[in-house]
Amino acid sequence: MKKFLFLFMALLLSSSAFANYDFIINNRNISYNEDELKFYENNKLLDENEVRELFPDYDIVLISDFDKNKKYYMKNSLFKSKKILLLNDTRRTFHLFYIYPISSRNQINSDDKDYKVKSLITVYGKKNVRLKHFGLDEFEIVVK
């Protein structure tokens, strides 16, 4: 019985169906997969330029831009905020990863619903932001 419950929970947690959001931006039906950090339209993966059109206020940071220590270095003023969109251009997945600090998490309001989009981040001042997993695996945006 324990094995059955374990397998059922593993299947439930690994299913990407629970990590997809569908919303409307600029009259376009967009899907977001938070385990992949990727955006789709009509089941077609959107490239960096197409995502940039959807979110013109955000600077796109690709996962491949992080160094071998999983760090990305950027400049920001002490009293300014900068909007960042993390976009996965690799085959890696990010199941159960979360953005810290919590105040850096952003959301989209579409059809009177708020969708928490893991890729949308606001960097405040000189405060570093982490995309962190409970298993201590993390990617860090280091602000200089």
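Second entry:
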Amino acid sequence: MLLLTTPDYPPKWGGLTTHTLNVEKVLRALGVDYELFHWKSVGEIATFPTKKLQNFKQVLNIHSGFHMHMPATHPRVINFVNGAEILFYSPNMMKRLIKRALRRHSLRRVESAHKNIFISDFTFRTLQAQGLRADYSRDIVFPMCVETSHQVLCRKDFQQDPLRFICVARDVPHKNFRGVIDLCEEVQRRSGRKVELITVTDKVFTSPTITIHSHVNPDNNERDRLLKSAHFNLLLSLDHSHRGFFEGFGQIVQEAGCLGTPSIVLNTGGLPESVHHGETGWVISDTSPESVGQLWSNLSKNTYERVSSVCFEHTVTSHGLENWKRLFGTIL
């Protein structure tokens, strides 16, 4: 029996929830019996019964925070290492002091794992900078995988207006909605075409020039419909490591890719590993008029159609759940 732990699960939605649901699909496909533990605080981790913990053959953590704070050691812990948890930061000063005090203990716990699965080389290097002693027999860099059974190359006419962009992100500072709107406005100014932006937050964004459509908290089916309708997915996350936030990989890039919608991302965190510039999407340094202008000058109908097709094929081949099945088949 395997213990699967996660901090996020329905009805709370987000990247870690989707990650957990996808891992569950893989475990069921492999015939692995598991018990799910949905933790909501460090206190719930610390009070997990030690005797019960030892009854599990393996512990698979969607978020490595469980291993950092679990009440006892275990010989076969497998961690996914995503991003923010490895910065030992909290906006709450008391929590921040506690995380810093426990930093060495947390790092040694991660080093005691049977396997650590880093979702990008950036997260691996970042934790090494925090003090992790790397072990290449234990530490694996394995990019994020997503459900691709609904795969469909939804072809969009690049020359047909309106030109649609979508940003599937929460309204938090590092997701950079100001940059998203700036990019869309600059594309409309340079192209002379009508540009629309689709958002999924409950905040109403406005612009004096472009049209913004808000679809509040869509379910996965509605989200996929919106992704299919867009020419480009935008993930322009800023590096806010000093505040405890960066983009570890960018799961939505793959969720858009298996529908044939390529992404434009910033050159921060693990995003340059998620998007292969000029092949599966585009990586830009910032959203200044100069950077957006250079991006737009290199786009054409043929370029867009080629990147859209390559993005689709690459996502289905390299980021489908079959890849996790092969990985889990060797380490579980």
